[in-house]
Automatic annotation (TrEMBL):
Keyword Hydrolase found: yes
A Gene Ontology biological process term: purine nucleoside catabolic process
Organism of provenance: Muricoccus nepalensis
Protein name: Cysteine hydrolase
Inosine/uridine-preferring nucleoside hydrolase domain: residues covered: 5-296
Length: 307
């Protein structure tokens, strides 16, 4: 199994992504680090502890940045609720480890062999950037960085920018500059993972334990997205984990990506060169197409294994 760190800001779709990872034998989940984002750090941390706790797996959960490299996080309570889990209450999880996310990430990387650790970023990229900025040699330990963030077209936070990229553009830019293999799971991909009432029902029919029930409650509580025609909402972050479990469900291409770190209305936009118009080497893997039925089948099958 792949030695893996997940950095997250739970967040409804982060919770689903964590349970999917916790249920999947392909991943050796070593560490969960937490960043502010969808809601403030105190809530994202409590939510991460609760989500990991419900799975019964003793994975360390470590708090990280409560603000981006510049400015402050804005939060997205309209999607995730004031509590970050759309009002679904989980039992309190085990205490967080008394450490700092960037240090904990570096400690796992130092132990890892060359090119062996996988980093999954499903919130603002602050913690991952801080970890690697102060010890860039550790990038050599990385097998792959998988980021849910960005868009090749319209954003979902500003007209130009997706929420995670907009929340800390400088951090995302630093990760892209590392030169480690990086997969960017953008909005255009994640909007294909459309959670409809029929799909929630299918998931609930699997029965399962407390995790699957909570997952069904959370998915049912997230409001439908106007951009998706009111048919449902997108399960963004679980797509990033699925990429590691079943890459055959995705169609990809290689691209180069630049992040707008300027102060204007384009701040946080990811300029994704899908047609090779720039001379830059296309080093980023861009999943473009998702087999959504396959994705939801895998999600259900895995979540049904959890307690
Ligand atoms: C991203 O923003 C957050 O609201 C979600 O958890 C996801 O990581 C989607 O733009
Ligand atoms: Ca997230």
């Amino acid at each position: 199994p792949r030695s893996t760190i997940i950095d997250c800001d739970p967040g409804t779709d982060d919770a689903l992504a964590l349970w999917l990872a916790l249920a999947s034998p392909e991943l050796d989940l070593r560490l969960v680090t937490v960043v502010g984002g969808n809601v403030g750090l105190a809530r994202t941390l409590a939510n991460a502890r609760a989500v990991v706790g419900l799975s019964g797996r003793p994975i360390p959960v470590v708090p990280g940045a409560d603000r981006p490299l510049r400015g402050n996080f804005a939060g997205e309570p309209a999607v995730h609720g004031e509590d970050g889990l759309a009002g679904v209450i989980l039992p309190e999880g085990p205490p967080a480890v008394r450490a700092v996310a960037a240090d904990a990430i570096r400690a796992v990387l130092r132990e890892a062999g060359p090119g062996s650790a996988t980093l999954v970023g499903i919130g603002p990229a602050t913690n991952l950037a801080l970890a690697l900025a102060t010890e860039p040699d550790l990038a050599g330990r990385v097998r792959e960085i998988v980021i849910m963030g960005g868009a090749w077209g319209e954003g979902n936070w500003t007209p130009a920018a997706e929420f995670n990229a907009a929340s800390d553009p400088e951090a995302l830019d630093m990760l892209l500059a590392l030169g480690a293999p990086l997969t960017l799971v953008t909005l255009e991909l994640t909007m294909q993972a459309l959670v409809t009432p029929a799909r929630v029902e299918a998931l609930r029919r699997l029965g399962g334990g407390a995790c699957l029930r909570a997952a069904g409650d959370i998915l049912a509580a997230v409001p439908p997205s106007r951009r998706l025609g009111g048919q449902g909402h997108a399960l963004h972050d679980a797509c990033a984990v699925t990429w590691l479990l079943a890459p055959g469900l995705f169609g990809t291409r290689k691209v180069s990506v630049e992040v707008d770190c300027g102060p204007g209305p384009g701040r946080g936009r990811t300029h994704v060169d899908r047609w090779g118009r720039r001379r830059a080497e296309p080093r980023v893997t861009l999943p473009e197409r998702l087999d959504a039925d396959g994705f939801f089948a895998l999600l259900g099958q895995r979540l049904a294994r959890l307690p």
